[in-house]
Amino acid sequence: MYFNGKLAINLCFLQSLLFFSQNFAEEFDVDSKCVQYNAEEFAENINKKNHFVMFYAPWCTHCKRLYPTWEELAEMLNDEGSRVTIAKVDCTSETSICDQQDITGYPTLKYFSTDLLEPVKFRGTRDLPSLTNFLNEQLGSSLAKPGGDTDEVILDAAAKELTDESYSSHLSSGKHFVKFYAPWCGHCQRLAPTWEAVGGAYVNSKFVTIAKIDCTVNRDACKSYDIKSYPTLLWIEDGRKIDKYQGPRTLDDLKNYIVEMLGGTVDQMEEAEEHPPSPVISLSGENFLKGISSGFTFVKFFAPWCGHCKGLAPTWEELGKKFANKDNVVIAKVDCTLEYNKELCNEQEVDGFPTLLLYKDGEKIGEYTGTRALEDLYEFVGKHFAHDEL
């Protein structure tokens, strides 16, 4: 009786498992936008077009969690004009395909390119942004929504793509914000749409270019800038690395950083080219002594991450405008977080941000410690300036 009872329980379990698998298989097929391939169809179509394929098992819980996202991806991209087909293969029924593709776990996601002999395995997180970013990296251009919708699922390549052949001439002059990346890098994939948005914001800028370099292909370029991790974001001027960006990678944070490096205000300047040149002079360890050598120079020593510095930034710009027509008064700033300015800030005994120091003919004559209202700052400089004129 015990044996028969145990056998009955096991048979019940197996029937339940079979029922679950059948229902799950049906769930994968009901109103699916995703292309389901059998062995014959897979062999016939896989080399005709780019494919992103999910190899799955109906009983796999990870597959079940991925299913709605995969369907959403298929709904967005499976149309006549798309450059990629979203497909799936059931490894419990199409064992020959899965053995050939060396599928050892579920789900396994592979990108098959018409330009590559071997497929690329997706290794990122299985959410819609990560999947679309991966496809964007593989295809290297935009994918439009089905039906001709003007909104884009994946952004156009607004950042300029540089190569081993083009990077040196492009970066040799001017200011550039460059992303060094690897297509397989999960952090790079997550950053990709934001970086293209940054590129779009400055695509017509006369003052900076937003660029990117794929280090898996352009090793000479990445070696020349000593790139050791991905993504690495460098500010480059006239071919020389000036700073490495290590802050948050949101669109606003990246744009604020660019504005700071261009010498504008953080909170008010959306696009540098829409504003006149800043009246505030940026000084560095290389030109500081020359910059303060004659007349009055009022210098703000700051850090871009400092909240008080950000609050002062627009006021400092206004102060620069007020003294713009005074030949012997200069309003300036020094970013103490830049590597080549750290020694300068130590020499000037800057121990907090912002530090506001007034110089006359190359000599420090005072530190401003009052309120940071425009009128008070103007009065502080004006007193010294008026006294000197008398």
From TrEMBL:
<dbReference type="Pfam" id="PF00085">
    <property type="entry name" value="Thioredoxin"/>
</dbReference>
<dbReference type="GO" id="GO:0003756">
    <property type="term" value="F:protein disulfide isomerase activity"/>
</dbReference>
<feature type="domain" description="Thioredoxin">
    <location>
        <begin position="15"/>
        <end position="140"/>
    </location>
</feature>
<feature type="domain" description="Thioredoxin">
    <location>
        <begin position="269"/>
        <end position="386"/>
    </location>
</feature>
<dbReference type="InterPro" id="IPR036249">
    <property type="entry name" value="Thioredoxin-like_sf"/>
</dbReference>
<feature type="domain" description="Thioredoxin">
    <location>
        <begin position="144"/>
        <end position="263"/>
    </location>
</feature>
<dbReference type="InterPro" id="IPR013766">
    <property type="entry name" value="Thioredoxin_domain"/>
</dbReference>
<dbReference type="GO" id="GO:0005783">
    <property type="term" value="C:endoplasmic reticulum"/>
</dbReference>
<dbReference type="GO" id="GO:0006457">
    <property type="term" value="P:protein folding"/>
</dbReference>
<keyword id="KW-0732">Signal</keyword>
<protein>
    <recommendedName>
        <fullName>Thioredoxin domain-containing protein</fullName>
    </recommendedName>
</protein>
<dbReference type="InterPro" id="IPR017937">
    <property type="entry name" value="Thioredoxin_CS"/>
</dbReference>
<feature type="signal peptide">
    <location>
        <begin position="1"/>
        <end position="25"/>
    </location>
</feature>
<comment type="similarity">
    <text>Belongs to the protein disulfide isomerase family.</text>
</comment>
<dbReference type="InterPro" id="IPR051063">
    <property type="entry name" value="PDI"/>
</dbReference>
